[in-house]
Design brief:
The structure is a homotrimer of 345-residue chains.
Chain A: H1 3-7, E1 14-19, E2 29-33, E3 36-42, E4 48-52, E5 66-68, E6 71-73, E7 80-81, E8 87-89, E9 104-105, E10 107-110, E11 113-117, E12 145-149, H2 154-162, H3 167-170, E13 186-189, E14 193-203, E15 219-228, E16 233-242, E17 257-269, E18 272-281, H4 288-318, H5 331-344
Antiparallel strand pairs in A: 1-11, 2-3, 3-4, 4-9, 5-6, 6-7, 7-8, 10-11, 12-18, 13-14, 14-15, 15-16, 16-17, 17-18
């Protein structure tokens, strides 16, 4: 695995810092993002502030601090910082100097995600925030998901998502299905990422839909997803329809199961990753049991991935000189790794 | 934080190695002191011996050994060392050679402390042992205390002790009191350390004295302490008297609460520290509940310090290039860090 | 301790990889051997295959794979490897290229041991497999034993086995006996290792034989063992006979207790070791309680060794510049360390 890629991160891009509900009014949420410790809290207007999580005085963590009228007080020696990071109060000091300032990061709250820009603040263009509207659109239902990879670089998780041939092995009895490995996907390469299209005609219903699907018998099913390299974000349209009812031609019958999944990887460190996800359905919107069942099934599958990927990461750490060898199924991941290499320049 | 200061220790000085009761007759007490592993035991006369905790033969730890008539036997291959560190018995060998010697360290047992000199033995002057007589003086009562900082360099704890403005934040509801941060201390600089004088006139009784004080209403209270840089030792006179009864002028009324605290930091490693302390009172000497209550209250406060300081240490380890920025409250700690820098030369 | 010796391993030699029963048909047994991760499984004929435990594709561990008709399938992306390590199946690929090959290691299964040759395969001569026939010979009975040293280099365990003077201290109340340290062994040096002969005439029965021996009173007892440097293997004839019944002259009376022990060290990493052992008896062959009692007693003793040796290893790691000093009892271990130094060239 390319060391340069694993130890650096694309900073001039929007990353998911947190789910909206993780940053509660009056509290400070600490999270390491792209190797930097960040304290997240809401100001007096409820707007999220992201501040480097160490006081500029003696480096105590600000996440042990206290929110006071939208400002953040360090609870070691009492310095008080406003939402811009400027220190506005120091015990025994009339006027805090400019040097007492903590770095803040641009933040956008949208689609239940709190997006953060860890690079140059002046390049933080809100027009670049990726679309994740399925998470709030009333035409869809989903439950916010989170997986903490304590021991894997984000690229290994990305590799996994860019090659679904693993579904037939890692997820044989859950998300997968026996023919996953044989499907040759259509790969479309873009400068922003890649689009992967997989069609399984006349296939079995995948195991995770057993309790969800409203029909039985052979299915035509599909996965069409885009990977956005700068944001490490997957946006996937997928579904299963009764076989030969026209799904490949774009005719989706009402009893089909149609989904949209958003999955975002935010590097925590070189060997750990935050994984935010939803798996939304657009049918039986008022059936909370369906929403829960889907989230549970996906979570089981993601647990299978995590076990394999963290084992793979351990091998890579233990044998830093071991070489990987390419196969055709690596096409998409090779393209995206090249894009990331360029974004790091 | 200055790396040179954190990774080196002042060796030519007396450090507290242990409480007297920790070294029991016939047993070996192992402790890492200034990065060195030391085996402590009592010889035939009860005098404490401090020996490097590794046999000179195959480096087995002597603290797994056995005390035999004041000598220490390694229980791996049976070498026997006398209190000078000289090997006096080797199986299958008539006369052990001089090369079989383990380094020992000068030790003084006084005021319930076992003091050790980790530097050049010929410079170990017992006249330099700091005064801690309050720990044995019948005019005072205290309970020996010990806190193990598993994850903090001693300098961070020293910084904490040299700037009591943190009392209003870290200890707001325990040792502190709201006005602690606003008190401007008097700082007297010496070549051996610093004296800090803090007076809080017409203040509230600090929370930790709620059950101890024999009066109610506003108080005049004080903290006057010396920090001895070479020994990392704090010696503090403190107390609370009913307001306007003359305490600032030196007239202490009988119902006042007067204390003397001795606190000693002994570096264990670059990131861990032994913290020995007492908080003696000179009133109600036969009221053991008072002695216990004071020790309990101080221990709660020291737990608050430890949580903050170890969090601060973690930030410093994770972000080694982060810079601290000075404020007026740092005056005493800056002076002592300079002294330590000179002692390390 | 010589760093070169501890961080390198003799690779062109047979090492014990596992007990035969550890590699079950249809399952994969993962073990780190000489710093390399190895996946062990049985092919269609039951023959053990040893393969590097990482898929050549994306480095996933093959020990998470699945045995299919004697081949091993990686359960990440489905590559299938035959017992020679050649990949014979890749999803979406007609003919896997030669580059998709995983390294395998020569293996011999004999005397209940699975031997592995971690060096150059062409030098793997089965005639060099050490003799351990006591483990299968119907004239002897033993129970396979295993100790995992999580935190000790194999050389420290070897040192322990090459100097039995420690029996009187580490094992005073178990395997030892008070006079162990005073016995001067006869040391015979060979280019393959060393033979150590120890006789204890008119001695007490060692404590671990209390329930096993069929006689009481003073004993003549012996330990005669060979250490094979390339294989880290001890092969020991030992026993206790009633004193003055001719044992030293080779006349072993029927009530004597005679044993043969095989003990093999396989480095796992520079600081961890696999320890395989048996302690066979050739009397009361059908008394399973005797076999069990002996294994239990030896295991207690080996626990005492492990506690001391891992403590010694910690001292060495913490104080890398500390020097050892030789005594006469080190004679055998010095010879074998020299041999190992030559084998590493």
């Amino acid at each position: 695995m390319d060391d340069v890629l694993t130890e650096q991160f694309v900073r001039n891009a929007w990353s998911v810092a947190a789910w909206d509900f993780e940053v509660e009014p009056g509290k400070v949420h600490a999270r390491r993002i792209l190797g930097e410790d960040v304290a997240l809290y809401r100001d007096a207007q409820g707007k999220v502030v992201a501040m480097v999580d160490r006081c500029c005085h003696r480096l105590a963590p600000l996440s042990r601090g206290q929110v006071e009228a939208g400002n953040l007080r360090c609870m070691y020696h009492g310095l008080l910082f406003d939402p811009s990071g400027r220190c506005i109060e120091v015990p025994q000091m009339a006027k805090p100097p400019r040097a007492l300032t903590v770095r803040t990061f641009p933040v956008v709250e949208r689609d239940r995600y709190i997006w953060i820009w860890m690079g140059d603040a002046e390049r933080a263009d809100t027009a670049l925030v990726p679309d994740a509207h399925w998470q709030v659109d009333p035409a869809w239902r989903s439950i916010p998901g989170y997986v903490h990879y304590e021991a894997a670089n984000y690229l290994l998780i990305m590799d996994n998502l860019l090659d679904f041939s693993h579904l037939g092995f890692v997820h044989a009895t859950t998300l997968g299905g026996g023919r996953s490995a044989d499907i040759k996907p259509k790969i479309e390469r873009f400068d922003w990422g890649v689009r992967v299209t997989r069609w399984y005609l006349n296939d079995d219903l995948p195991p995770f839909l057993a309790k969800v699907a409203r029909f039985r018998g052979p299915v035509d099913r599909w996965q069409v997803y885009e990977w956005h390299a700068a944001n490490n974000l997957l946006s996937m349209d997928s579904g299963s329809a009764p076989a030969r009812t026209g799904a490949p031609e774009g005719h989706i019958v009402p009893e089909a199961c149609v989904f949209h999944s958003v999955q975002s990887l935010t590097p925590e460190s070189a060997t750990s990753t935050h994984y935010f996800w939803t798996f939304a359905h657009n049918f039986e919107l008022d059936n909370a049991a369906i929403t829960r069942e889907l989230a549970d099934q996906i979570e089981i599958g993601f647990g299978e991935d995590k076990a394999m990927i963290q084992a793979q990461q351990q091998v890579i750490l233990d044998h830093p000189h071991a070489k990987m060898t390419g196969i055709p199924a690596d096409a998409a991941l090779h393209h995206v790794r090249q894009l990331i290499g360029k974004l790091l320049v």
